[in-house]
Give the backbone structure.
Amino acid sequence: MLTSLAIRDVVLIERLDLSFGPGLTVLTGETGAGKSILLDSLGLALGARAESGLVRAGQPQASVAAAFSVTDDHPARALLGEQGIEAEDELVLRRVVTADGRSRAFANDQPVGLTLLRRLGALLVEVQGQHEQVGLADPAAHAGLLDAAGGLDKLRGQVAEAHRAWRAAAQALAAAREEIAAAQRDEEFLRHAVAELEELSPEEGEEDSLAAERQKLQQGERRSEAIAEALSALAPRDRRAANPAVALRSAVRALERLPAPNTESEPALEALGRALDALAEAETAMERLAHESGPDPRRLEQVEERLFALRAAARKHLVPVVELPALLATLRARLAALDAGTDRVAAAEKAAAAARAAYVETAGRLTAARTEAAGKLEKALARELPPLKLDRARLVVEVAAKPEAGWGPDGADRVTFLVSTNPGQAPGALDKVASGGELSRLMLALKVVLARGSPVPTLVFDEVDSGIGGATAAAVGDRLARVAERLQVLVVTHSPQVAARGARHLSVAKQVKGGRAETRVLPLDAPARREEIARMLAGERVTEAARAAADSLLAGSLL
């Protein structure tokens, strides 16, 4: 519920801090005192349109902060959690409006967008005024109101889930059909491309290995020349050229001719032996290398043809050579999907039909339940209307089937509240047939019936008693008090009969201070409340008879 409202520099209000409690709170005051400013201020905190004219003259900005206590399971907490805002024990919605008309919004001191502020406000407060009976005058809200009256929220949730599943199945079917249609359009290309790539048979990493081999083959002649030169140095064909192996052997023979004992020469002989062995090993390795590295023009031609074929295919398909194997796999998969597409589409069609049937069945149960709830709601409202001076009015709750194109998560039917205010008059749209005062009282009657299941904890009625008095006003006050047994209710009233039913009474007055008008709001104690109700009864001059009548009203309100 709304626990406090802090207003700064809004029109005639310089600084105002109000506290609210449960039950029925009434706000009274003479016309022009500023009661509408209070509602406009609350509306700002709830996300209403901001205008520069709301800022008090001479001030740079205006601000309003509305604090609410919410239960742990209230939808506002979940909405805050979705936005990453910590849901504390108290929820504070704040709005700042500058003199140039710009505004900023906050939830628990975290900056938020205006859309989120409005969503939070709609979960916390519902305002019903002469021109603001949105919940009743807006046909889009009628199904929700009927469902709340009939306790159909669970069934409505099942319909929403069935609709979601149906939509998902229908989307899957559309995707399957589009996929096979696209594949059929490209079938000739796909089969040609797959055959071409399968003949080419590209392999992972093939381009790099071919490029490396090509470079090696292109360098083959120079490699052969270098290896031949190295071999010639080790074993020259010209007998007159220096031959290291011959030189090493001559050295060995010379050392072996030393007279015995010649142990000093053994290390040298061993080293020469190792050198001869290494020389022979090097010669063998170079001969093998010369054999393997010889120029191969035929192989070079083959490598280049393969490399050029791969690159040509890559250019044709607009992919790098390295992606050709993956492309082939993708094209094969598309062909396979084409071949199996008929089965997939058939399966998707079956699933979509089953999901639709499930939705139709669930929505049908909701329609039946709504039809039953509509009859009960009409009877309940019929009992509430006569005391509200609407005894000739008749509210009709129409449940009509929608065309399939209009089926949605809220069901397959259209719920419309129609009203006839005079005998013989055909029921028509509420905002076309009912006056502002009648519409407010119709909403009050509806709230009496729906109070038990209302998700919004705070209701605000602005002059719901407009144009009525006497017993009718007393009936309005009685019903406001009944709604307030379950919900917090704030009502702006000019009716003493309504004011007398309040658990709390706030008086709104305009004073002139320092040459400037200023709106003040005062909580009234018992004597001041008696005097205010007497003023409402008598007018400008309060008489003892008016005070006695006020005592009577207040005594009746305590019964």
Observations:
- The radius of gyration is 47 Å.
- Residues 103 and 430 are 34 Å apart (CA to CA).
- The mean pLDDT is 84.
- The first helix runs from residue 35 to 45.
